Amino acid sequence: QVQLVESGGGLVQAGGSLRLSCAASGRTFSSYAMGWFRQAPGKEREFVATVWSSGRNTYSADSVKGRFIISKDNAKNTMYLQMNSLKPEDTAVYYCAARRDYSGGNYYIQSAAYDYWGQGTQVTVSS
Description:
Layout: E1 4-7, E2 10-13, E3 18-24, E4 32-39, E5 46-51, E6 58-60, E7 68-73, E8 78-83, E9 92-100, E10 116-117, E11 121-126
Parallel strand pairs: 2-11
Antiparallel strand pairs: 1-3, 3-8, 4-5, 4-9, 5-6, 7-8, 9-10, 9-11
């Protein structure tokens, strides 16, 4: 089992940047594929980005492609989301998620594919 704790959210002006972190407990972090999701008020949770368990490959939603960068540092048991050129429509609670993936070569875009979730961190982008 793994526990996830997000940090790094806050209030930023449009065009600014934030870096979210997701710290994981446990000794087998390198065997977990991970992802970022977000949920805005009144909307469903949506996929943002995902990374292989190895950290070697990533995949992002079209809405954030070219602006957000997901990365995974297995030595530090931490996943990151670097968010640049933020827009007001990026305002949401951001969640990190994890699931076991021993094969190391899979993306998981559906929230139902993940077994573990963090508590979320609020990101607010003002116009």
